[in-house]
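Hey, quick one: can you model this chain's 3D structure?
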Amino acid sequence: MTSIDIACDLHDRDETGYVWAYLDEARNPSLIVPGAIVIAGEPDAPAVVEVVDVAETPTGTLVHLRPLPGALEDYLQLVQRATAAA
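Sure thing. Here's the predicted structure for all 86 residues.
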């Protein structure tokens, strides 16, 4: 089971074309800022995403997310290679 930074349904897209979530669904809201790369979705179906924007709405703070290509494990391998080379 993977620990996620912000819970969302990765199939829900709004009129912007981005996946959306509410900031109050974040484990640590201070991590959810534009440009941040975080883990989103559900613990049994996580994805690496970029935070596109965070906006106040009448229903709460809305976060737009752009899923990045590849599986979570692909990014782990990337980080392991990068840290091994340093």
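One thing worth noting: The radius of gyration is 13 Å.
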